Amino acid sequence: MTLKDIIEELDLKCLNPVNLDAEVSSAYASDLLSDVMGNARSGQVWITMQTHKNVTAIASLKDMPAVIIVRDGVPDDDMLQHAKDEDICLLVSKDATFEVCGKLYDLIK
Amino acid sequence: MHYTFKIERGNFTDAGQASSSVKRTLKQLGVDPANIKRTVVALFEAEINAVAHAYGGTIDVDIDGEKIVMVVADEGPGIPNIELAMQEGWSTASAKVREMGYGAGMGLPNIKKNTDELKIDTKVGVGTTVTMTVNLA
């Protein structure tokens, strides 16, 4: 499933529309940055409530195409700018982590 | 090839720039993606450790055909007990650092897992030098 399909199906707000054709077959949900650094895989979408620039830095280092911020979180200005600079698709869901994970799991597993 | 970066105390905004720059260079050099991943995980964690705990420092990266050697040297509190610091889950990070999603006690274990050689020289009240080697061959 492409990122674009996921955005539509999960009704996500897209703050930086890039990587829309990326094929997504998995995701990683965590608010601990070293957990993501150590255990997430490239190509996965990252689900988190963290809204600062180090998130996009890690997403870029780990070759993750998109970050979904849960519960209508608002990214810091420098996070949004960094997402644009590094071509990370920045998405926002009104749902909490549990719901985002459940819906996404149903879609791609 | 040799690269040097500066580390500023508490400057999380710019943290990751060294790792990002090294990643770009390694890609250009055609280094195997698995080794690039290991390198950037280790370097990012070491960089964050220094930003979170030390008063400032430097990162030196040397790349040749056989290996990548990264030296992160800081002036800071030092590590009183390295054995404890290497344990997953053990951390002395501040509340502010934990709020950002760091301080889970996974940094040094992540570095250990992703490098072929890890050397930590530390002196309490003076600083810490972390030397990490990733073999390319």
Domain module tally of chain A: 1
- Sequence of secondary-structure elements of chain A: HEEHEHEHEH
CATH topology of chain A, anyone? Udp-n-acetylmuramoylalanyl-d-glutamate--2,6- Diaminopimelate Ligase, Chain: A, domain 1
Considering DSSP H and I runs of 4 or more, what fraction of the residues of chain A is helical?
Answer: 40-55%
Mean pLDDT of chain B: 96
The assigned CATH architecture of chain B is 2-Layer Sandwich
Q: Could you tell me the strand content of chain B as a percent range? A: 25-35%
Description:
The complex is a heterodimer of chains A (109) and B (137). Chain A contains 5 helices and 5 strands, in the order αββαβαβαβα. Chain A has one domain (3-108): Udp-n-acetylmuramoylalanyl-d-glutamate--2,6- Diaminopimelate Ligase, Chain: A, domain 1 (3-Layer(aba) Sandwich), CATH 3.40.1390.20. Chain A is α/β, with parallel strands linked by helices. In chain A, helix 3 packs parallel to helix 4 (77-86). Chain A is globular and about 30 Å long. Chain B is an alpha+beta fold. Chain B has one domain (2-135): Histidine kinase-like ATPase, C-terminal domain (Heat Shock Protein 90, 2-Layer Sandwich). Chain B contains 5 helices and 5 strands. In chain B, strands 1-2-3-5-4 form a 5-stranded antiparallel sheet, with helices on one face. In chain B, strand 4 and strand 5 (127-135) form a beta hairpin. In chain B, helix 1 packs antiparallel against helix 2. The longest helix of chain B has 21 residues, at 33-53. The mean pLDDT of chain B is 96.
